[in-house]
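re: ur question from the group chat, yeah i did fold both. here u go
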Amino acid sequence: MRPKRIQSVDVDWRLVEEVRDAVVYLAGTADRTTITGLVRHAIRRELGRLRRKHLDGEPFPPRRHDPPAGRPVSVDAPDAGS
């Protein structure tokens, strides 16, 4: 198992506040979570959707380099934008 890494992302403050509100509100329910848990779940769900859409559910191929920070990546990926 790979060690965990910390990855900073730029998120609109309104979204961060809604996440914090949700975590506090859900504390006493069956959907109790943490900010980290909510973010991990959301990322896994979105990656699954993108794998199904672009790769018939298969994993994304390993990257050859890290994407540049702060801006979208434009590459010659097959089916990019479909």
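okk and heres the other one u asked abt
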Amino acid sequence: MTDSAINARIEHKAVSHPPYSLSIDAAAKHFGFAPKTLYNWISQGRLARGQEYLIIGRKPVIIRDRFIEWMEREDGSNVCSN
């Protein structure tokens, strides 16, 4: 493999794609909420299972794009999805 081919593969792998889902702690950090806030929204039914979050094992995970859409609907904000 040539140096240019190796560099092209490295650059391709370096492209960052936003994650599909985030743990509660990662979502809290990413979006600037306390983890407890996210847990409260789940327990209060504000976030819908299968829509804004899933249960993986016993732990809820936030579906990133759906959560962004939810936040935009809730407060009318325009959240950057990148």
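fwiw on the second one: The longest helix spans residues 3-14. The radius of gyration is 17 Å. idk if thats what u expected
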